[in-house]
From TrEMBL, chain A:
InterPro entries: ASHA1/2-like_C, START-like_dom_sf. Residues 23-151 form the Activator of Hsp90 ATPase homologue 1/2-like C-terminal domain. It holds the Pfam family AHSA1. This is Uncharacterized protein YndB with AHSA1/START domain. The lineage of its organism: Bacteria, Pseudomonadati, Bacteroidota, Chitinophagia, Chitinophagales. Belongs to the AHA1 family.
UniProtKB/TrEMBL annotation, chain B:
Keywords: DNA-binding, Transcription, Transcription regulation. PANTHER family: TRANSCRIPTIONAL REGULATOR, ARSR FAMILY (PTHR33154), TRANSCRIPTIONAL REPRESSOR SDPR (PTHR33154:SF33). It comes from Taibaiella chishuiensis. One of its GO terms (molecular function) is DNA-binding transcription factor activity. This is ArsR family transcriptional regulator. Residues 1-90 form the HTH arsR-type domain. Coiled coil: none annotated. It comes from the Bacteria.
């Protein structure tokens, strides 16, 4: 089966391309990036600020169940063309990855389907690889933590 | 989702890693695998079940015996460090698609 989400990351390059096809008309796909309330649902984060215009900015925040800040990301919007394109920066707070540049292109494939191409540029190839490996490392950590929980219960 | 089927969880256990190493060299029956461990037979069976559920092992019926094969394809997927990153975005985009489809259906209901 062909994968709907694809990652293209060549060795030694400081960029990657994420592509995804959707069973959605392009205007609905774009809307999911345009409305704070919808972003909150699929990104699983609070949207503190979202100014969809050139020179605008955004701020996302996620808190853990205890109310501590777990994730914070922000950026500046450089270009905002409805149903077509968003160019923005993205930076995670308290993470050693520096700011990244994102080009989001939205295109219709038919009246009912569309495609998103995310071109992400990092400060260096090393940082790109670190960001790519993050969910992999978390997967292993989570497995180890679960194992640790089980072991602790046995004690 | 059954956490037990998570391939990372499966690999986090040292006995299961030892089983994979053993079966990687040749296909074996559950009995032959269990003979290599001090662990109780039902415990080994449980490990085999977990490894099979997450596709690291495959079963093949040979007469009355069931042989366990190592699945290098699945291992390759795990070794590919990009896969969890891809999965993260795939899950997000699936959610986005589901939410927007729901809205699309709701608004078409209103029009009727």
């Amino acid at each position: 089966m062909e994968q709907k989400t694809r990652i293209h990351a060549e060795d030694g390059k400081q960029e990657m391309i994420i592509t995804r096809s959707f069973d959605l008309p392009v205007d609905l796909l774009f809307k999911a990036y345009e409305e704070a309330e919808i972003i909150e649902q699929w990104m699983g984060t609070k949207v503190r600020k979202l100014e969809n215009r050139k020179y605008g900015g955004y701020l996302f925040e996620t808190h853990d169940p205890k109310g501590n800040l777990a994730f914070e990301a922000s950026g500046t919007i450089h270009d905002f063309v409805p149903d077509k394109r968003i160019v923005r920066t993205f930076e995670m707070s308290n993470a050693p990855f520096d700011v990244q540049l994102e080009f989001l292109d939205f295109e219709p494939l038919s009246d009912t389907t569309s495609k998103l191409t995310m071109h992400v540029v990092y400060r260096s190839a090393t940082i790109r690889d670190q960001v790519l490996k993050l969910p992999f490392a978390q997967g292993i950590n989570m497995a180890h933590n679960r194992l640790q929980d089980i072991v602790n219960k046995l004690k | 989702m059954n956490l037990r089927r998570d391939v990372f969880q499966a690999l986090a256990d040292p006995t299961r890693r030892a089983i994979l190493l053993l079966v990687a060299s040749q296909s074996m029956t559950a009995g032959a695998i269990a003979a290599n461990f001090d662990t109780a037979r039902p415990t080994v069976s449980k490990h085999l079940q977990i490894l099979t559920e997450c596709d690291l092992l495959q079963q093949e019926q040979n007469g009355r015996e069931i042989y366990y094969h190592f699945n290098p394809q699945k291992m390759k997927e795990v070794a590919d460090f990009i896969e969890p990153f891809r999965k993260l975005w795939d899950d997000r985009f699936n959610k986005l698609e589901a939410i927007m489809k729901q809205r699309m259906n709701k608004s078409s209901d209103k029009k009727q």
